[in-house]
């Protein structure tokens, strides 16, 4: 990995120490160029014209789906472009037919986006079982946790591949197998996994995988819902998702078109395509290895500071480059503000859209969270550690 070249492609990475990648990553110039090229040279709608501009845009839009699908080993299923994981999970919640007595299993470690759509189904008599880690509150969910909770009424298990607070990586392959052994479906929220290590839906065996473009160098307002079978009822109806319409009814299209009613975010799709190509050119294995070095350095540095508590799995367990911590005597927002104001370090603070987890861990104010990506350096990690140490010494 040529980190210097990557940073050349991302000017903002040289202006601040950007460590809020679990929320939104920065975009390299090739991603921006791909969107500008569309807007400048062949701006047209897709699937709605035979003129040259529409044909070029349509072909590239189709190729964007193919590129993303190959990235996750998803050729056996259907990739649908959405705005983000939130929209994707809502599509599943509203697209499946749930009946009173059906059960959904999710976890206290999950993002609000993988909780609220299921909570809403309680109004239909659906049971939502939010389970907690039995082994270690900070170590994430295990397959045994799922196995102990699943019942004959379980219709769906919905779980994050990696926690955006703890950084823990969950055993989604084993969990998908447990779900299928009980005739249940499995949805995996890959928002924090797909951008950071090789994720293959064939290996996982899940029925649904969602991820967001803005966390993997792509534009905001882009994301993917991958489906093993396109059996969901469409969330939206209208132009672009039909094969035929009469005064008596309509016939929906097949494939991803069935779920993409209306004019899509075409420029965003081309940006997402460019982001995937950028990641592929570097190699997900190289990215994972680079982030692992940075994560170990950060954990080692913070653990040596008295008054700092790291929130996450114990040493030796698989994790991503998400490191949450608290500083004794300071609100997380105070720490984040000082890091920004005095050190130009950008981190996130608060609940990270995981209020149930914060309540479970007895962290009413949340945490400070540093989240890493391919353009971060060891020097930046050292600056963060030194900054936190100076903040603690000044309390």
UniProtKB/TrEMBL annotation:
Write down the SUPFAM superfamilies for this protein, in alphabetical order. Answer: PLP-dependent transferases
GO biological process terms, semicolon-separated: cysteine metabolic process
What keywords appear on the UniProt entry?
Answer: Pyridoxal phosphate, Transferase
The answer to whether UniProt assigns keyword Ligase to this entry is: no
Q: Where is the Aminotransferase class V domain?
A: 17-384
The EC code for this enzyme is: 2.8.1.7
Q: Which cofactor does it need?
A: pyridoxal 5'-phosphate
Q: What Pfam families does the record point to? A: Aminotran_5
Q: Name one GO molecular function term.
A: cysteine desulfurase activity
Reactions the enzyme catalyzes: (sulfur carrier)-H + L-cysteine = (sulfur carrier)-SH + L-alanine
Judged by the first EC level, this protein's enzyme class is: transferase
Under PANTHER family, the record lists: CYSTEINE DESULFURASE, CYSTEINE DESULFURASE 1, CHLOROPLASTIC
Family per UniProt?
Belongs to the class-V pyridoxal-phosphate-dependent aminotransferase family. Csd subfamily.
Q: What is this protein called?
A: cysteine desulfurase
Q: Which organism is it from?
A: Methanospirillum lacunae
